[in-house]
Amino acid sequence: MSEYDDILYAPRFEPKHHPRMPLSKRAAQFAPFDALTGFDELLVETERDTEERKELSEDALEELNRKFMQVMEENSRVSIRYFEKDDKKAGGKYRTAFGFIKDIDLVRKRVIMEGGRHISFHNILSVEEV
Q1: Alpha-carbon gap, residue 130 to 93, rounded angstroms
Q2: Are the beta carbons of 108 and 89 closer than 8 angstroms?
Q3: Which residues pair with 85 in a beta bridge?
């Protein structure tokens, strides 16, 4: 008989007013610290796809200008496909804006949509009447 035989098989104490911590939370206390802080975010960022901005030919630019003049005369609803530069990576994404053109700013070389969105001329890929 050893010195601790009387307590070896004794029932475990259960507090009456304080519930036990779940095992999942207890395990988190002993998890190693994240030595590579931000690494997960960096992996997500590198997996995100971007596109390069397409340069339009002279003929395509003339056609685009003609469409703009037609749309402005008719004051019709349009869809403008344009390039939006990515803030974090090289390249960006092509987006489509729908609505009415409020104004064309020739000084700053941009289109102003009815909702206040500004689209630079050199980022516009196409204009279609909707």
Answers
A1: 22
A2: no
A3: 92
Which runs of E-coded beta strand occur in the chain? 78-85, 92-99, 101-105, 110-113, 118-120, 124-129
Helices marked H in 2-119 — which ranges?
5-8, 23-29, 39-47, 58-74
Over residues 30-62, the pLDDT tens digits come to: 666 666 777 878 888 888 888 998 999 999 999
- Rounded to 5 degrees, φ, ψ at 124 are -80, 130
Strand 110-113 relative to strand 118-120, pairing:
antiparallel
Q: Position 45: which residue type?
A: E
Find, among 45, 65, 68, the residue nearest to 57 by Cα: 65
Q: Is the pTM of this model over 0.85?
A: no
Whether 130 and 77 have beta carbons less than 8 Å apart is answered as yes
Structural contact between residues 99 and 113, judged by C-beta atoms closer than 8 angstroms: yes
